[in-house]
Model the fold of this input.
Amino acid sequence: MKAHTKETQATMTPEKSLQQLKEGNQRFQENLKADRNLIEQVKDTSTGQFPFATILSCIDSRVSAELVFDQGVGDIFSARVAGNFVNDDILGSMEFACKLAGTRLIVVLGHTACGAVKGACDDAKLGKLTGMLENIKPAVNAVTSPEDPSLRNSSNIDFVNEVAAKNVQLTIARIKEDSEVLNEMHNSGEIQIVGAMYDIHTGAVTFYE
Ligand SMILES: [Zn+2]
Done:
């Protein structure tokens, strides 16, 4: 498999981009890899990059977007922050990736048993982490069930995973609300923005469509 070029990138619709990620994750789950010469891809991309998707995921060591979607050098823009939320810096990065560098798909990828989500559920306090977790609190508050406070913490993994799913939804809403550039591209059909959840037990990505 060759690195993307200006010509191949131009053929990538949002739908086709999504399909490539789905196929890549299927390979990952089957422990298969597309036949790539990574160092050849390094050489081929040295004069320019033409990725087809932008993926926002968690820093979690188990959830590398390139690995779980079986992608090579120059295939995807990868933004990572604990808890996969957006702020102005990440939105600016996404605007670059879509408007200037030509990717047609944004994926917000959450994952099960996310430590950052657990921290937000538990109201963890530590240095700069305290403020960072505030970005995930809206998702905690938006999951209204169960009401019993003793069940609304990281010891309840179902609650944690529901908050992670809600966090993906709220992040997508925030991308559209806070980025005029991306909202316009979304409304005109130039890009799609989709949410997804990675299961740390199986390696499977489920897209919310
Ligand atoms: Zn995480």
User: Anything to note?
Assistant: The chain has one domain: 6-208. The pocket of zinc ion is lined by residues 58, 60, 82, 111, 114-116 (CB under 6 Å). The longest strand covers residues 105-111. The chain has a mean pLDDT of 97.
